[in-house]
Design a protein that fits this description.
Elements: H1 2-33, H2 48-85, H3 91-101, H4 114-117, H5 132-142, H6 150-170, H7 173-182, H8 185-201, H9 213-233, H10 240-266, H11 281-288, E1 294-297, H12 301-306, E2 311-314, H13 322-329, H14 333-339, E3 344-347, H15 349-352, E4 365-372, E5 375-380
Parallel strand pairs: 1-2, 1-3
Antiparallel strand pairs: 3-5, 4-5
């Protein structure tokens, strides 16, 4: 199964490389289509090989300087990580790759959908182009009269949008070409496109929506460019500026109102007293554990910020040490936590029997009569 999964990842990575080359070709076609003159950059009669021979030294020098700074800083960061933490890359990333290799899917596992692999799915955590993809996905689902699957309708809508975008650019080729170049849309789009398949090709679980920041930047730049181009081609009339402000106000209210409602519902003014705790779990633990206690939790990073005079250990390993990660993989994490003196565990015993834990803490836990939200407080120690 591992060989098949590895072969599948390599196949998908090859497909992604082909798509990247296609993206480069499309970008080149856009520039050719937006060409405003027929001037030739190179000297008359100069061949590409001759141009390469005349400029290769400069390209190597400038490339070495640019990438030397980037990879030099990355190398120093990795060396410092190795010396300080025992591993050259962040433990959280290694943990998520390990989760994806497990037979169960307690943390979601690696992606199994082609649209999710390329980051263009309009549902789920692999929705890298939200909110535009979500809106377009809603449109495609409403076109059920086409009598094709949702994914194909969605791809049709994406293709039509790309054609529309290109037609808008053709309304003012010079302005469009200048804007695309100065805004860096092509390199930004290429990097944003490669990011999602990179995560999925190496096998990555539990990816989150905040990974997709570069995609949001591209969305804002592209929509701004399209709005500016459309504004220029609209007929000039007396109240055009007022109409533009009305549309901007409408969009602001339409997007801001749901956000304000969410804030209002989750944090009503005056509902809680000023001294109310931010979370229920820290006061519960402070009541039933001694000061100085070391307490293990699954996904307990937020409790660690608010608890007083106690230490929270995250048992899933995301914000833990590299030795603990190695012990977790070797099914020795129970002994590791006992060795460092952990006193209590607050967790769901059923979850600790599943992947990635598989019961390796059971012999060290003694249940107490304290529970909260399906979790049980248990004293931890040598059997």
């Amino acid at each position: 199964l591992g060989i098949l999964e590895g072969s599948f990842s390599r196949l998908i990575l090859a497909i992604d490389l082909a798509f990247t080359i296609l993206l480069f070709g499309i970008s080149r076609l856009i520039y050719v289509g937006l060409r405003t003159n027929k001037a030739v950059v190179s000297q008359p009669g100069e061949t590409p090989l001759a141009y390469l021979r005349d400029h290769w030294k400069r390209w190597i020098t400038e490339g070495a300087l640019y990438y030397g700074i980037v990879f030099g800083a990355l190398g120093l960061y990795m060396i410092w990580n190795k010396l300080a933490f025992g591993t050259s890359s962040p433990v959280s990333g290694q943990i998520k790759q390990w989760w994806a290799s497990l037979p169960g899917r307690a943390y979601g596992g690696s992606t199994r959908n082609p649209l999710s692999f390329f980051g263009i799915n309009y549902i789920g955590e692999a929705n890298a182009w939200n909110p535009v993809s979500r809106i377009l996905g809603g449109w495609s689902e409403s076109l059920y009269g086409l009598n094709v699957e949702d994914e194909w309708r969605y791809l049709i809508v994406l293709s039509l949008l790309a054609v529309l975008f290109y037609l808008v650019l053709l309304t003012n080729r010079k302005k469009a070409k200048t804007a695309i170049t100065l805004m860096g849309i092509v390199p930004l789009l290429s990097s944003a496109w490669l990011q999602a398949p990179y995560y999925h090709a190496i096998g990555y679980a539990a990816y989150k929506e905040w990974y997709w920041v570069s995609q949001l930047v591209i969305i804002v730049l592209t929509l701004s460019l399209m709005a500016g181009m459309l504004y220029k081609i609209l007929p000039t009339f007396r109240y055009r500026q007022i109409v533009a402000w009305i549309l901007a106000a409408y969009l602001g209210l339409n997007m801001g109102t749901p956000y304000w409602k969410s804030i209002h519902d989750s944090m009503p003014y005056g509902y809680w007293p000023p001294d109310a705790p931010y979370m229920d779990i820290p006061p519960l633990l402070e009541e039933h554990t001694e000061p100085g206690s070391i307490i293990g939790m699954t996904g307990g990073g937020n409790a660690g910020y608010f608890i007083q005079n106690r230490t929270i250990i995250n048992m899933d390993g995301l914000i833990n040490s590299y030795p603990y990660f190695e012990a977790l993989k070797a099914r020795q994490a129970g002994a590791y936590l006992e060795k460092i003196g952990m006193d209590y565990v607050l967790a769901n015993p059923t979850i600790l029997d599943q992947q990635p834990y598989k019961g390796q803490f059971n012999e060290y836990m003694d249940p107490l009569r304290v529970s909260y939200g399906g979790k049980r407080l248990m004293r931890y120690g040598a059997p």
